[in-house]
């Protein structure tokens, strides 16, 4: 007697889960690296503003503390 293997129609093979997203700025690092380096001491403020914008779905109003900090840093650099 031959055994028949039947597949369960309710069981579907699922694709593997997608890999976790890269850290913020990882994909843009090569393109923006030189531009960010030019910001010197303000670069960390710029990157934190970018993180805020990503986290808030580009809501500039919720990131005003970051905007003001970057602006003040830039103004200090221009006075030197």
Automatic annotation (TrEMBL):
Keyword field contains Transmembrane helix: no
Keywords for the protein's UniProt record, in alphabetical order: Disulfide bond
Chain residue ranges for the region called Disordered: 1-35
Compositional bias annotation for Pro residues: 14-24
UniProt domain CHCH: residue ranges: 42-75
Matching SUPFAM superfamilies: Cysteine alpha-hairpin motif (SSF47072)
Listed InterPro entries: CHCH (IPR010625), Cys_alpha_HP_mot_SF (IPR009069)
Pfam families: CHCH
Keyword Disulfide bond: yes
Protein name: CHCH domain-containing protein
Origin species: Arabidopsis arenosa (Sand rock-cress)
